[in-house]
Design a protein that fits this description.
It is a single chain. Helix content is 31%, strand content 17%. It is built from 7 helices and 5 strands. A hairpin with a 2-residue loop joins strand 2 and strand 3. Helix 2 packs across helix 3, helix 2 packs parallel to helix 4 and helix 4 runs antiparallel to helix 5.
Length: 204
């Protein structure tokens, strides 16, 4: 798996109002502003909303010099709410990425690749994965379809089939079989971890 895929998928730093969708091996970057963040939950019982909020706050503060703004905490909490049993791995990655704080002009986090890979391996049990590709559809197609290929296993999110508006309903598939349905509250879920993440993690 390429590091570009890893950091594109974990690109929470882009907490501004733009969503970039790229159809290439670098995956999808950027987050989006707007909408309220839900309460963070975890199926492990070992994490709490306060623990996630603390990790997100530390991460956002550390990345202030790299463009994180007032929407950063909201975005981070929303993404954490989609991760289910992987929220502890997310918190670990956030804390690692906050210390030491990244500095311009690169703002990269090469020192936390192990933590990032642990998180992705939790979300996608068929790890290692090659790339994440997303397609924007035009009605009557789904508003967004994203795929992550991990060896012979394909994880797929089909979102906005009935309505392109947010919150947006998603159907989650593993190798073409539906494993559940969920809802992305804002466009942030289309840019990084979407609401299918917990269902993918539990599909092993």
């Amino acid at each position: 798996m390429s590091h570009s895929f890893l950091w594109a998928l974990l690109a929470l730093a882009a907490c501004g109002a733009e969503v970039r969708v790229e159809r290439d091996s670098d995956g999808v970057g950027a987050g989006a502003a707007g909408g309220g963040a839900p309460s963070a939950t975890s199926s492990t019982g070992d994490s709490t909303p306060d623990a996630l909020k603390e990790a997100c706050a530390a991460w956002c503060e550390a990345r202030t010099a790299c463009g994180a703004d007032e929407t950063c905490l909201e975005a981070c909490l929303e993404l954490g709410s989609y991760l289910g049993p992987c929220v502890l791995s997310f918190e670990t990655w956030l804390h690692c990425s906050a210390s030491p704080p990244p500095e311009p002009p690169s703002c990269d986090q090469p020192g936390c690749s192990v933590e990032g890979e642990d998180l992705l391996a939790c979300v996608y049990p068929a790890w290692p994965c090659e790339n994440r590709e997303c397609w924007i559809g035009v009605s009557p197609e789904p508003a967004m379809v994203c795929e992550v290929s991990c060896g012979a296993v394909v994880y797929e999110s089909i979102c906005g089939e009935d309505s392109p508006e947010f919150p947006r309903d998603c159907v989650c598939l593993v190798d073409g079989a539906t494993v559940g349905q969920c809802q992305n509250l804002t466009a942030r879920g289309s840019s990084s971890f979407d609401c299918c993440s917990a269902l993918f993690a539990e599909s092993e």
